[in-house]
Write a structure and sequence with these properties.
205 residues, twelve-stranded mixed beta sheet, 58% strand, mainly beta, 1 helix
């Protein structure tokens, strides 16, 4: 069923029916067993609204039997995220546990690309982000960040390195950044970060 467009649409329709107003879309093509394309995706959660003009996924679920999640490409264009402002104080959340990222499978994310992003918070002007690109691999208790690139109209950064998703969270990261000031001056630099959650060494140049 998931190998045909008709079957995939039926399964997606069941998900939409179960989630009610949380999830909706305009069109869906492709199959869950190879590539999936969606237009006009809408996600509604308390205090959060997400709209995506176009979403594309190419992956190889047949490799799940070997313990591998293989995502060849995940792209989303025309992303609008609206967060409501609330005077209520959020209840205390549990501390972040990096071990939660240590999955019992290998994850290969060859290419993730999010483009044309706008973030709205309350009535504040939108905060644009041109693109976010990511290539990463999680294997044998090690997260290899092959590339993380975030670009905005004023500048951005590119990072690469390795992080172990354990309580100590040892890491080794390299980051290059640049930013244009309101007076058009351009700033840039590089960071090298190494250490763990309790002791970090940072060099900037």
């Amino acid at each position: 069923m998931a190998g045909s467009t008709t079957g995939t649409r039926w399964l997606a329709g069941q998900v939409a029916r179960l989630t009610g107003d949380i999830l909706a879309w305009e069109t869906l093509d492709g199959t869950l067993l190879h590539s999936l394309r969606m237009q006009g995706l809408r996600v509604r959660l308390p205090g959060t609204a997400i709209d995506i003009q176009a979403l594309n996924l190419r992956w190889r679920p047949i490799l799940l039997a070997t313990g591998v999640v293989q995502v060849d490409a995940f792209t989303a264009d025309g992303i609008r995220i609206a967060l409501s402002e609330s005077g209520e104080t959020d209840s205390p959340s549990s501390p972040f546990d990096p071990a939660a990222l240590d999955l019992p499978v290998t994850v290969n994310l060859e290419a993730l690309a999010l483009r044309d992003i706008e973030l709205f918070v309350g009535n504040s002007p939108p905060r644009p982000i041109d693109s976010i690109n990511l290539a990463a691999r999680l294997h044998d208790h090690q997260l290899a960040l092959e590339q993380l690139q975030v670009l905005a109209p004023e500048g951005g950064f590119t990072a690469r390195g390795n992080i172990a998703p354990t309580e100590a969270m040892p890491l080794d990261l390299f980051l290059h950044w640049s930013w244009r000031l309101p007076d058009q001056r351009q700033l840039a630099g590089e960071f090298e970060i190494s250490g763990n959650a309790t002791e970090l060494a940072m060099e900037h140049r």
